[in-house]
Structure formats: C-alpha cells, structure tokens
Design a protein that fits this description.
321 residues; alpha+beta; Ubiquitin-like (UB roll); Dna Fragmentation Factor Alpha Subunit, Chain: A; 3 domains; four-stranded mixed β-sheet; 4 strands; DNA fragmentation factor, alpha polypeptide; coiled coil; apoptosis
Length: 321
C-alpha cells in the first residue's frame, strides 16, 4: 500500500495555498484542482514551487520530501520565481507600505464635507460641478470648521453656506413649478381628448335622448347628453368632466342629482364629494398658473412699454422738422 504523503499546493500567483495528503501524483492533481477552483476537465501541470521543475513521474513524486510545495499551472500559466526585496532596501518598502496604509485610514475617517472643502480650496470653480447632495453637505457642515478648512473667515464661510442654500431653494422651486406646469398641461390635454370622444346612445334613465354628437341638452336635467353618459357609465367620472360640468353638478346638490341619475343618496353623495374635490384641485392649479404668469408677464411687457415711451419722446422731434 502506498504511503500517504502530506504536501502543499498553490496557484501561479502564490496567493492561494492549501495543505493536502495524497497517495499519488494523480490524486494531487485532482485534489489540487478542487482546492484551487480549477475545472476538472482542464489539463494542469505540476511543478515545484521553489524552482519550477516539472513533476510528471510518479516515482519522482514519491521520492520528494514530505510537505513539498507544488504549483499547479492551468492552461497558459507559467512558473515564475518569487520576487524578493534585498536586505538593503526592504526597510524602505516596509515603511512605504505603512505610510500608504496610514494615508488610507486617515482619508476614510474624514468627514464627507472635508473632502469637498479640500476641492474648493484648490479650485473654487469646482462648486459648479457639484451635485445637490454635495452642496447640501457643505451647507450642513459646521461653519467654524468649514472656514478653517477653506482658509476663510467665519463670516465668509457663513455667507457661502447661505448662498448655497439659496441655490438649492431656487432649484427646488424651479422643479416644483415645472412639475405643476406639466400636470396642468396633462389635465388640459386629457379634457380635450375626452370632449373629442364620440358619444353613444344610453337607454334608460331620465330624459333619454338619441345622441348623435353628444351636444344635445337633456330637457329634464339640463345636462348635455354626453355629460349624463359620463356620469352614469364611466369610472371616476369627475376626472372626465369639464370644469363647467363639475361646477354644475356641485351646484345642483345631492337631491337633484339623485333624480337625474336615479341613484340612492349614498352613491350620489359620494359622486358629489368626488366632484367637489376635483373642482377644488383644478381651481388651485389655475391659481398657481396665474401666479406663474403674473411673475413672467412684467418681464415680457417691460420692453414694449420702454419702446413706446421712446417713440413718444421722438414724435415731437419729428413734428418740429
């Protein structure tokens, strides 16, 4: 029976090393591939780790001393000697490694705003490239420490933080105004599409009308036939009606709408409540749009007014000639 031999295996980079006990060279290859993560189907070459001697003979393998270290080479991998630093320069490499480690530890422990302050100290123009999160980090930084990091006076650092906060506030206002404008445009587009939809004939209910274009008015309720169709047959009808129709529904009240729709009080009350909420929301949107337009209009009308005043000044001159 072949004696089991303890040995070591590593990959070509020597970063992985495992201890094994095997009976043969073939068993060394199998267990070594499993330990190093090689595919069992890939061919491997066994060499001595210290000098790269290829080991292919079973008898030679058995003659090697215990705990011999082998290197398994996969595919195009080749053996290379260990890179050693001579004794005269080893202390320099060691100090360099320690210095790099200390530097990494120090930077990783620094506050995020310290890194941003260092960038600003080197070039103040980098503030243009900073994200809103970076700007908010600088705003939240302790003012005395920020001033010290930037080499500013504390009052200058405070002014910088106030300016950054105003920039963030302005961006947020612009974003909200844009979202509000988009919401308003979507609502208008939705109403226009609903008004352009072809109407249908609705049997049953008060004031049945054979509708061809949806614009005929029901003599009993006073609503257009298209409006009655939406109220009776659509899901969330309050979102499909025009503002004028919503106002009319809310004005009539629960009792009148019960007779118009032929519903019970609970269902009719729920509809009127939804219409009131939708009407209030639309009015708020209109007010917001008017506020935006009022802020824009003075800038747009300033130039024509100035031009008119200049023309009025020039007219007497032309008359005198």
């Amino acid at each position: 029976m072949t004696e089991r031999k303890p040995c070591k295996v590593c990959n070509f980079t020597r970063q992985k090393s495992y201890g094994l006990v095997v009976n043969s060279l073939d068993e060394l290859k199998i267990k070594g591939c499993e330990s190093l993560g090689f595919s069992p189907s890939d061919p491997v070459t066994v060499v001595l780790e210290d000098d790269g001697t290829v080991v292919e003979d079973q008898a030679y393998f058995l003659c090697l001393p215990l705990n011999t270290k082998f290197m398994l080479l996969n595919k195009k991998e080749t053996w290379s000697p260990v890179r050693r630093i001579d004794g005269g320069t080893a202390w320099m490499a060691r100090d360099s490694v320690l210095l790099e480690c200390d530097t990494v530890d120090t930077s990783s422990a620094a506050e995020p705003w310290c890194l941003l302050a260092e960038q600003l100290k080197q070039d103040l123009a980098t503030i243009i490239l900073m994200s809103e999160a970076d700007l908010q980090t600088l705003v939240n930084a302790p003012c005395p420490e920020l001033a010290s990091a930037l080499g500013f006076q504390e009052k200058q650092a405070e002014d910088l933080q106030e300016t950054l906060q105003r920039v963030l506030d302005r961006r947020e206002e612009e974003r909200q105004s844009k979202e509000l404008l988009q919401l308003y445009l979507k609502t208008v587009e939705k109403e226009n599409k609903q008004q352009e939809k072809p109407s249908q004939y609705i049997p049953g209910g008060a004031g049945d009308v054979d509708v061809t274009d949806g614009m005929e008015v029901d003599s009993v309720s006073g609503f257009m036939s298209r409006t009655l169709m939406v109220l009776k047959g659509k899901t969330s009808p309050e979102t499909r009606l025009s503002t004028e129709d919503l106002q009319m529904v809310v004005t009539k009240g629960v009792e009148a709408m019960e007779q118009v729709l032929g519903w019970d009080r609970v269902r009719t009350s729920a509809l009127l409540q939804a219409c009131e909420v939708e009407l209030t929301r639309r009015l708020q949107q209109v007010q917001a749009m008017q506020s935006i337009r009022s802020n824009i209009q003075p800038d747009c009308s300033r130039q024509p007014s100035e031009k008119t005043s200049e023309e009025s000044k020039e007219k007497p001159g032309h008359g005198s000639n």
